[in-house]
Amino acid sequence: MINLTRILAIESSCDETSAAVVEYAEKFDIKSNIIASQVDTHRLYGGVVPEIASRKHIEKINQVI
Prior knowledge:
The protein is α+β, with helices and mostly antiparallel strands. The chain has two helices and three strands. It is 31% helix and 42% strand. It has helices at residues 39-43, 50-64, and strands at 5-12, 16-24, 28-37. A three-stranded antiparallel β-sheet has the order 1-2-3.
């Protein structure tokens, strides 16, 4: 019998919110990998604005998952 492991990975960097689902049985298999970028938002300010970034992470995390 082969064990099946599913992993939900969530990441929020300075300007991206992402989530991935990976299965592992005998090898890794990426089932989903979704990324919400904030690059266009921060481009307006010439760099990442931490307060805006944190709000965008909160807005996007449920949609990404």
